[in-house]
Write a structure and sequence with these properties.
- The complex is a heterodimer of chains A (122) and B (111).
- Chain A is mostly beta strands and 122 residues long.
- Chain A is built from no helices and eleven strands.
- With 111 residues, chain B is mainly β.
- Chain B has no helices and ten strands.
- In chain B, the strands form two sheets. In chain B, strands 2, 4, 5, 8, 9 and 10 form a six-stranded mixed β-sheet that branches.
- Chain B is globular, with a radius of gyration of 13 Å.
- Classes of the chains: A mainly beta (122), B mainly beta (111).
Chain lengths: 122, 111
């Protein structure tokens, strides 16, 4: 059974930094692309970033490009999202998700974690 | 491109509801459309992938389709149950810009 467990959320001041982690189990971590999706309070889903199975390729939404960095440590079965220069509109529940298709032709997620909440006071 | 969904739909138990997802530019058939259900307080879960495929465990009351004439995808739920209430999101891959696109979501109320 696939399990994804996010951690690292909290309250961070504007301009500050935070690192989110996502521990993965139940599948061969290095064989699957992964992603982060966030959901602001009362709002819809917003894709944040994705990373290839090997970790060599990363992709970002325009809203976070240059501020957030995604990485994965295959030896630890852990996914990371480094948040820098955070803003009030980064406040959201951040979900870690596992790719469910052929990452090189289609992106979708087939498993999601429970999310970790990041709050940036305005 | 963007994906546009109606903010809300409502229907009675036992009835059938269809919700749409319209692609703003480019053909809806260019990239697969996937649908996620998010019940209140829960994480999203796939109900339809690759336009019309159901994951194991999703009842056949859920079906998906695409319509090139309206450049939209649709999610249909028949035999509505109160447990179907929640938010439904369509999603597609923008291969030209290597990004994932979500629709704004449709809130389903089963009254």
């Amino acid at each position: 059974e696939v399990q994804l467990l996010e951690s690292g959320g909290g309250v961070v001041p504007p301009g500050g930094s935070l690192r989110l982690s996502c521990g993965a189990s139940g599948f061969t971590f290095g064989s699957y692309a992964m992603g982060w999706v966030r959901q602001a309070p009362g709002k819809g889903l917003e894709w944040v970033s994705s990373i290839s199975g090997s970790g060599s390729d990363t992709y970002y939404a325009d809203s976070v490009k240059g501020r957030f960095t995604m990485s994965k440590d295959i030896s630890k079965n852990t996914l990371y999202l480094q948040l820098n220069s955070v803003r009030a509109d980064d406040t959201a529940l951040y979900y870690c998700a596992k790719d469910g298709g052929n990452f090189w032709t289609d992106w979708r997620f087939d498993s999601w974690g429970q999310g970790t909440l990041v709050t940036v006071p305005s | 491109f963007m994906l546009t969904q109606p903010p809300s739909v409502s229907e009675s138990p036992g009835k059938t509801v269809t919700m749409s997802c319209t692609r703003s530019s480019g053909s809806i058939a260019t990239n697969y459309v996937h649908w996620y259900q998010q019940r209140p307080g829960s994480s999203p879960a796939t109900v339809i992938y690759e336009d019309n495929q159901r994951p194991s465990g999703v009842p056949d009351r859920f079906s998906g389709s695409i319509d090139s004439s309206s450049n939209s995808a649709s999610l249909t739920i028949s035999g509505l149950k109160t447990e179907d209430e929640g938010d439904y999101y369509c999603q597609s891959y923008d291969s030209s810009n290597q990004r994932m696109v979500f629709g704004g979501g449709t809130k389903l109320t089963v009254l």
